[in-house]
Amino acid sequence: MLRAFEATARHGSMSRAAIELNVTHGAVSRQVVALERFLEVQLFRRRSRGVELTEQGVRLFHGVSAGFDRIRITLADLRNDRRQRPVTVTTLPTFASRWLLPKLAAFHGQRPDIVVNLRTGTDLDDLADPGVDFAIRYGTGAWPNTTADLLLSANAYPVCSPAFLETHGPIERPGDLLDCPLIHNVTRQWWIDWFVAAGLELTALTGGIVVDEYGLAIQFALDGYGVVLARDPLLDRELDSGALVRLFDIKVTPHFAYYLTRDVAKVLHPEADLLMRWLLSQADAPPPDSAGRAGRSHAALAGRTRTH
Fold it and tell me: What is d(CA 29, CA 8) in angstroms, rounded to the nearest whole number?
């Protein structure tokens, strides 16, 4: 009824409306009459050369036209979304800015036709949500009802700013760090693990700064407030530029790592599956200057510690 009414009102003619809708003139007339009976108002005045909207008809035409326009726009958007098949990925803010975004830029250069929606946050998203294709999570890899493919094992080692080293150095032995303010991300256990790997028998640590987001821990270290455990490869820029220096060769691999995860019952559409496999291939390649970075950091440390 509404289609017949809208076409008739737009053309000012039931005959032209019938041609557009591919029905007979009588069919359009019957639908319009049925609508008038349903609403209990007169919508058209019949003229010798067509029809003319009544005041109530004008009101209905504006509402129906706007509604049809919104329906057309929504249908077009849905068709476009279907063609583009956007891939929605969720992850932690620091990992997104320091590792994932450069990778996505490279991916876009190869596949500009694939739209990637990136969501960041510290809360775990519901991977059963149809709006989420997969996530990159930091943890043990044991999340219920999910698959978990290892993406990156983040080796941890202590770093600090040159200004902090000037003030608190020399830092020549791992035990010297026990007298320094340590920056912890969520738990002190990773620092305990590092000290044990360095040969110090520790079961507990006190003091220091504890933050719930790794980006804050990095910023505290850059500002010279303490020593943080770097996670390869998230601090490459700071180590390359000298904004942070590596204090020791000793490193520990925490039980936590970065995993590509998705709902176990979800079948990824081809674009999402392609991006997921591409990210896994990118994680296989070691940074080309990793050896040089370690050498530069230790050289900087040796030069500074000799001045004290």
Answer: 9
Do residues 106 and 146 both lie within one domain?
yes
Q: Is 106 helix (H, G, I), strand (E, B) or coil?
A: helix
- What single-letter amino acid sits at 177? L
Q: In angstroms, rounded to a whole number, what is the distance separating the alpha carbons of residues 134 and 233?
A: 22
- Of 217, 206, 241, 204, nearest to 154 by C-alpha is 217
Domain of residue 117, CATH code: 3.40.190.10
How does residue 81 score in pLDDT terms, banded at 50, 70 and 90?
low
Last residue of a domain, one of 33, 54, 84: 84
Does 185 lie in the same domain as 233?
yes
212 pLDDT more than 80 = yes
Q: What is the 3-state secondary structure (H, E, C) of 20-77?
A: HHCCCHHHHHHHHHHHHHHHCCCCEEEECCEEEECHHHHHHHHHHHHHHHHHHHHHHH
Interhelix angle 270-283/101-110, rounded to 10 degrees, is 120
Domain of residue 237: give its range.
156-252+289-305
% of the chain exceeding 90 in pLDDT = 53
Quick count: other Cβ atoms within 10 Å of Cβ 153? 13
Torsional sign, CA 70, 73, 79, 85 = negative
Main-chain phi, psi angles of 251, to 5 degrees: -140, 160
What residue type is 4 in one-letter code? A
CA count, 13 A, side-chain hemisphere, 36: 16
